[in-house]
Amino acid sequence: MTPTLVMDFASAFGSFVDRRPIILARDPRVHGPMMRAACVSALLSSGCDVLDLDICPTPILQKAVGRRKAGGGVSITAGHNDILWNALTFIGPDGTYLNPFQGQEVLDLYHLGKFDKAATDDLGRLSFAGEDEAVGPYFAALGAFLDIDAVRAARFKVVIDACAGAGSPFLARFAETLGFDLIPINDELNGFFPHDPEPRPRNAAQSVSVVRAIGADAGFLLNSDVSRISLISETGEALSEEFTFPLVADARLARQSGPVITNFSTSRMIEDVARARRCPLIRTKVGQSHVVLSLGQEDGVIAGEGSGGVAVPAFQPAFDGFLTMGIVLETMAHTGKRLSALVGELPRYHIVKEKLYCPPARIHGILDKVRTMFRGQGLDTGDGVRSEDKRGWIQVRASGTEPMIRIVAEDLSKDRARTRVDEILHAVELIQR
Amino acid sequence: MKKATTLKISISGARGIVGDSLTPQLTAVLAQAFGTYVGGGSVLVGRDARASGIMLSEAVSAGLLAMGCRPIAVGILPIPSFLFLTKALGAAGGIAVTASHNPKAWNGLKFISRDGLYLTPHQTDEYLDIYHQGEFHYVPAEKFKSGRVETDAGEAHLRKLLGRFDAETIGRRKFRVALDCNNGAGAVLAPRFLRALGCEVVPLYCEPNGEFAHDPEPLPENIAEVCAAVKSSRADIGFVQDADADRLAIVDEKGVPIGEELTLVLAARYVLSKKRGSIVCNLSSTRALDDLAAARGVHIFRTKIGEINVVEKLLSARPRAIIGGEGNGGVIDPEIHPCRDSFAAMGLILEALAEARGPVSALTRTLPRYVLRKEKIEGSAEWAHRLIGLLKKRYEKEGIINLLDGLKVDFADHWIHIRPSNTEPIIRVLAEAKTEAKALKAIESLKRNIAEAGAQL
Known about the structure:
The complex is a heterodimer.
Chain A: H1 3-17, E1 22-26, H2 32-45, E2 50-55, H3 58-68, E3 72-77, E4 87-91, H4 100-112, E5 126-128, H5 135-145, H6 148-154, E6 157-161, H7 171-178, E7 181-185, H8 205-214, E8 218-222, E9 229-232, H9 244-255, E10 260-263, H10 269-276, E11 281-284, H11 288-297, E12 302-304, E13 310-311, H12 321-335, H13 339-344, E14 350-357, H14 360-374, E15 379-380, E16 385-388, E17 392-398, E18 404-411, H15 414-432
Parallel strand pairs in A: 1-2, 1-3, 2-5, 6-7, 6-8, 10-11, 10-12
Antiparallel strand pairs in A: 3-4, 8-9, 12-13, 14-18, 15-16, 16-17, 17-18
Chain B: E1 8-10, E2 13-17, H1 24-38, E3 41-47, H2 53-66, E4 69-76, H3 79-88, E5 93-97, E6 106-112, H4 121-133, E7 148-149, H5 155-164, H6 167-172, E8 176-180, H7 190-196, E9 200-204, H8 224-233, E10 237-241, E11 248-251, H9 261-274, E12 278-282, H10 288-296, E13 300-303, H11 307-316, E14 321-326, E15 330-332, H12 342-356, H13 360-365, E16 371-378, H14 381-395, E17 400-402, E18 407-410, E19 414-420, E20 426-433, H15 436-456
Parallel strand pairs in B: 3-4, 3-5, 4-7, 8-9, 8-10, 12-13, 12-14
Antiparallel strand pairs in B: 1-2, 2-6, 5-6, 10-11, 14-15, 16-20, 17-18, 18-19, 19-20
C-alpha cells in the first residue's frame, strides 16, 4: 500500500462521488495517518469536500454519511485482516457499503486512471468533525433506538475488549448512553493490536479471565472498526462468533417479522431461528456489501454473517457492533435471562473453518474440481461451491480479501464436520501439487 | 519553439498548475524521494496561504509517512520563519508547499536541508537522482511514525528578530506603518512583529487566505493601494510582502514606491554603516550595490540567480559577508538566518529610519539610482540556450560578457541580462541604466537582437 496507490483508489472514488462531500474515518493502525493524508489529498483534488472524523468506528461514519446526506464515506480499515493489511472501505451516499455494481464502477475508474482534477478554486475543503457532526448524533440515535431504561435498571457489569481498535475512544460514551458499568480492556491507541483483531474465542483469553474475575454479566470482543463482535457469557465461556447473529436476530424478529438475510457460510442456527419466527431466510455471497444489498432488495428486517456482523435497517443498514451489543444487553434486560441461558436456547451445531493459501490464478480451477466432487450432493454455486444435506453443509470458496481458499463445514456431528473439511484440504493439496 | 510545459522541477524545487500537472500523486512521489534523501527523521511541512496548500500538504505528509519520516505540520508560515524553524528544531529537513509569486493556479514544493537552507545545486542533483530512479525507502509497519502539529510555529523566528533589532529606538519614533501582506503567508506574523517593535500598523490584506488582492509581484503598478493608504493614513512608511514573505517592497511617506531594487541597497547601506564586510548579490541586482561597495571599500560578490546561490556564496565569502540579497526585494541578514527575509528587511529599514531621524524619502534621496527594465518573453530553456549562443557572438566586442547564468553584458553606462527562468517556462530579459530613457533604449535594442537571432533558429 503506497501513497500513490491509496491516492489512485481515493481519486477513483472521488471521481465516482462527483464533487459531493465525503466523510473520512480511520482505525488506529500505524498506516492510518499515511493513508488518511493520501485520501484527504486525493479527495480534495477531485473536488470533494472532506469531513475528517479521525479515529472513528465505521458504523458511526456510516450513520453520519446517511444523516448528513454526504456523497459518500471512506473508512480506512481492514475489517478482519491483520495489522499489515490496511485498506479502504468505500461507503455510498445511503451510508451502506458500496454494492458490487458500484464497487465495480469505482474499480473501472481506477483502472481507467483518468481522475477528476479540480482547479485551485474548485478544490474540496477539509474540515474536522466536532461532537455535533457524527459522534453526538450517533449515540443520541442509538439511545433513542434501544430501551436504555431497561438496560440501566439491570445495572449490568460489562467487559469490552476493543483490541486497541477504532472503538477504543468510544467505549465510555457507549456505556454512558446505555447505562452499564464498563470494564474496558485493550482500549489504548498505539497503532498495534494486542491480539489478532478477529472477534472469536481463540482471541478471548484476556476478556474471559476478566469476566470471571469480576463476575461480569457479559463480555464483548470487538473487531478493529466495531462492525463485528463476539460474546462471552457470564460463566466465562467464549462463544463462537456464529452465535452473535442468531441471538440478536431472534430478539429482533420477536418484534418485527420479515426476511432475514445471511450468506452461504453462516451457521444453520439462523435457519432454525428464522423458521421458529416464521420468517423467510435468504442467502447471498459472503461480505457486508452483498448481504446489505440483498437487505434492501428483499426488504429484509435483519442481516448478518457468521463472522459476528449484524445489520438492523430500522437503525441503519450497516454492520454495527455498538447496536449489536446494545440489542444483546437489551434482550438480557427484557427477558431477565443470563447470557448463557439465552445462548443455551439456540440449537448447537459444530463448525469447522480452515483456510489454505492458493495463488489467485489457480483458485478457479480448484473450485471447478471441487464442484465435480460434490455433484449430486445438494450442490449450490451461489458463492463458491456448497453442498448441503440433512445433517449439515460444507462450503469451499475464494477469499475476497486474501489469496486464500476458505473451507467451512457445519454439522450436527463435530467429527463429521472435521472429516469433511479434511477431505477437501487433502484434495486441494493433491490438486495443487 | 517547443510548447512550454506547466511543470518545472529545478533548483528552485518543483512547480506546476493545480488541477493539471501538479497532482497529489506527483506530489507524494516528490515527498517520497525527499524522505528517502533525508533518510527518515522529522521533516517540517508548511505552506504559503494558497488555497491548494492543504491538499498538497496532505500529499506531502503521506509521502513522508510512507518513508518512515515524522512530518511536523507547521501550517501557513512565512518562508523565512519556516527555514529558521527547520534549523532551530534540529529537523532532518523541510518541505514548503509554495509557489512564491507565481499566479494563483500554481503551487509547488521547496526542499529544505537540515541547515534550514534550500537544497544546494549539488544536493538537488542527489535528490533528483533518487526521484528519477524511483527507488524509495518504504519502511515496514513497525517503523511508521505519526506526525505532529507545531502550533504558533512563527514564534521562534519572531523571538530571534526581536533579539536582533532595537525595539526601544524604533519604538520611540512611534512609526505608523501601512502593511500590505496581499493575504499571503506574511500575514500570520508581520502585524505581530511590527507591533512588537512599537509600530502602529495600518493593515491591508492581512488575511492569510491566499486570495491575492493584487498581482503578487510587488511591482509599483501592483501596489497602488498601499501607496494610497500611506497617504490617507499619513503613515511613515509602507511595506509590501510577497506571497511567501521573503521579499519586501517599500513605499515612502509620500506614498511613492521606492522601487524594489532599492530595498537591498537601503538595507546594505545601513548594515555597512555599522560594520565592514562583503556584499553578496546575484547578477541581476542593481549596479547601485557596486557603487555602495566602492564607496565603503568592501568586496561585492555576484552569483547565479536563485536564492541558494547567493546564500552559498554568502556563507563562504571572504572577507566575511554581512549582507546579501537580490534586486527583487530579497534581503539576507546572516545575523538572523542565511535566507531572504522580509522581516529582517523591515527591521533593518525601521532601525535605519529611526536613527536617521528624517523621512524615508530623505533616506532614499542619497542612494545611487538606476532604472531597471524587466520583461519576460515566452520560450523554453532549451530555446533560450541556443539563442544565447548567437547573442554572445553579437555582443562579444561591445561589452564584458558574463555567462555565469544566461548572458549578462556589462557596458560602461548600462548592462543587459537574458536568462531562462528557473520557475516558469519563460525567459527573463533585463536592462539597467542611469535613466529611464537609456534603460528603455537598452532593452529595446536587446529585444531587437533577440528577434533577429530568434529568426535564425
